[in-house]
Design a protein that fits this description.
This protein is α+β, with helices and mostly antiparallel strands. The chain contains 5 helices and 13 strands. Strands 1, 2, 3, 4, 5, 6, 7, 8 and 9 form a 9-stranded mixed β-sheet that branches. Strands 10-11-12-13 form a 4-stranded antiparallel β-sheet, with no helix packed on it. A hairpin with a 2-residue loop joins β4 and β5. The protein is globular and about 55 Å long. It starts with 9 loop residues before the first strand and ends in a 6-residue tail after the last strand.
Amino acid sequence: MLKKVVDQMFELARTDDGISFCKLEHAFELDKLKIGEFSYFRKYLGMADYFSNFNSWLKRPTVALVLAISDNTVVGWAMNEKWSSPSTDGRPVYVLRGIEVSPQLARRGVGKNMFFLIANVLLGHVITKPVNKNAKLFFESLNFVEPSSISPLNLGDYPGYMILEEGKKELLSFEDISVFETNIMSCKAKIFPKEINLEPVVSGVNTVVSNECVATEKSNIADGGADSVTPPDDKSVGDSQDTVVFDGKFVGEQKMMSPCKCGHYLVYKYQVTGKKKGTAFICASCNIERYFLPLKNLSK
């Protein structure tokens, strides 16, 4: 089974050298962790007690806190909180209140990886306010832009804020980490139970899938439109142990976060019925099944 640093928290990804990226669920999960060396928020924003701040945030249901943990020591953190103002397109809005990495891990992609992971967990748009020029450059590297007249959120009363629209999240990428899709989907379904109607994928006892991050939403089941591409004529795909034979309804296409073994990113999505109900993600090039998400039993 997938190893967790502390019971209850969701481990979203891990590096080869042992840094785990986890979304905490409860304040007591901090009890077995040590706070590493941090300087920026302490020096410039007066954040004297990181442990107390983390503890307080985790007691607020509107907060999503992701930590980077090495040897049970917190070496990075990112805090997002649900924004009270609605977007014009009805999507949720989260504000990135703070993100910080221990100085000894600076410029190694830890901050970007933390944001990539939480951005894939949270539905909707993300906004933030850079505190200086360097922070602004960092957020621009994460595809944040200054709001315009056509932005889905009116930030006229909040000068200095930048926005990452949900549609731009697909441009984000991660560096040198193994992503645990099962935990990302479980975490996402827990936060958005009404929007997500797919159960986490479980294949035998192996719940770890490296370098692919798939998050299919109930309201976005046919990305790009079901009529925008032509599916393969033959839905009986291949004969290797990674392929599947099924009768499925084509519902759209999607670009994966990492390539298939054949090198292609694009997959076709099919709604599968029968004994195995769910959504199958089939490589558009070699017809290998990349991923399968079983449907919840809605009658329960």
